């Protein structure tokens, strides 16, 4: 089975021998690949939609009818026992929904060692929620999927909460870690986001002063992106000069 670039990157974040659960599995391509390649000895395919889970089941039967599969219908990680698997993948959902899934039963969420999260939107809000609830982002990756560039977060759980996270700000939308874990898509990603934020700023500014708070927040995001792009330029040219 050949995966898309997005799913392949997620698969690469899983270590050989780990057990995993795919929450919102849909067609089940990722867990099926992990079984086929022998990377994971056991996978759980879970979805809240019976129709989506049926698609996964159909693919299981078509590819390897002789195997037994662990398919579970249910909401989020409710389908799992505490600490049942090593890694949970939640991909292709909104960042706020992912945070809601993890917050529903924090004790259970913290019993899972690692998560690989791929939010479709609100990644900054998700980063802030993770920081505020004892989850540590250990890696950030960018990958192309069609016309989109997706963010993938590798997250460890179980960290004690010594204090609340810093207030939500543009630093959560566009953190320094985007440069720490930069790849060939980083510059394009930052430039795309800057173009979007500048359009938003222009539209907000054209309206009344009642949106002043939104204007300030958008300006902060623009400043943050400009800072990261300038830093990326300096680091790239510094590296070239040292060759």
SSE map:
Elements: H1 5-12, E1 20-23, H2 29-36, E2 43-47, H3 50-63, E3 70-73, E4 87-93, H4 95-104, H5 106-111, E5 114-119, H6 123-132, E6 136-145, E7 148-156, H7 170-173, H8 177-180, H9 186-205, H10 212-241
Parallel strand pairs: 1-2, 1-4, 2-3, 4-5
Antiparallel strand pairs: 5-7, 6-7
Give an overview of the whole structure.
The protein is α/β, with parallel strands linked by helices. The protein has 2 domains: 5-165, 3-Layer(aba) Sandwich (Rossmann fold); 186-241. The protein has helices spanning 5-12, 29-36, 50-63, 95-104, 106-111, 123-132, 170-173, 177-180, 186-205, 212-241; strands spanning 20-23, 43-47, 70-73, 87-93, 114-119, 136-145, 148-156. A 7-stranded mixed beta sheet has the order 3-2-1-4-5-7-6, sandwiched between helices. Helix 2 (29-36) links the parallel strand 1 (20-23) and strand 2 (43-47). The protein is globular, with a radius of gyration of 20 Å. Pfam families: Methyltransf_18. One of its GO terms (molecular function) is tRNA (adenine(22)-N1)-methyltransferase activity. Keywords: Methyltransferase, Transferase.
